[in-house]
Specification:
heterodimer, A: mainly alpha, Helicase, Ruva Protein, domain 3, 5 helices, B: alpha+beta, Glutaredoxin, 6 helices, 6 strands
Amino acid sequence: MAITNDDVPATVAERAYEIKANTLCPVCDGQNVLESNAPVAAAIRRQVDELVEEDRTNEEIHAYLARQYGQDVNAKPPGTGISSLVWIIPVLVAVLAVGVLSSSFKKWRSGRGKLVTEEDRELVRKLRDEP
Amino acid sequence: MIKNIGSIRFVAWAVAVVMVAILGVLAIRTSSGEALRSSNVIGQLVPDISGVDFNGDVFSIDEHKTKWVLVNFFASWCVPCEREHPELEAFSKKHADDGVVISVPFGDTEKDAREFFKRLGGDWPVIIDEGAQWAVAFGVLRPPESFLVGPGGAVVAKWQGEISLKGVDEVMNLVGRESKN
């Protein structure tokens, strides 16, 4: 049986890195705690290292940081509760957009190649002849 | 042409409805700013703060369970921290019998924190937060941040920014009155 990279469990350092990469600095603008020099980012990095050494799971660590600093600290919003709308709404918008566009395309296509009627010609003549 | 206008109106309404829905979700979602002001540590038992302070004495917050404890996160480079230092000194003197201040350097080196106290004075315990466990346990964002722990060990108040003796006393009086009722 071939062993791939997916089968090898992440090292402590890899796990800590992944958690930090997915934790946003609470006082920065969109930076994760790996990128930020803010003292609170440094504090979170140190705590993540300790908690990973203590064998806490990724979910436990993310949940703890969210309790301390708010849900916004997680770069990936949870899939439950009101925050799940972050995942649902884009999908709904995409489905709605595709539906509206395909319906519009159908209408535009059915409108193409229509023959000009005698009424249309009469209308154009009237408009041309008007002073 | 009238049919095209109808399609455009339909698309415009659909976009408007979706945008209002998104705005509605954003409006009812608790912002991280609100969560911080309420602070999830208030009402909880104080995290266990213990260690050797700058004077070489062993400090354990457990030993001060019957007192008011003012936990102050500071940094030597923090200007409001320097401004509030006399207020902490005043608190320490006024509440020598029923209270204690404990200062914890945040985002600072031990050397600079020691220099800070050498320059400004203050004989209360200053303890290094190894691994930043207390800073994260309290949810500290930036110094100065202070937390008042009541007798019994529950965190009763949090201040973001410099504090005053008057402000802390007001909270202590309020909490003291409420606990009697």
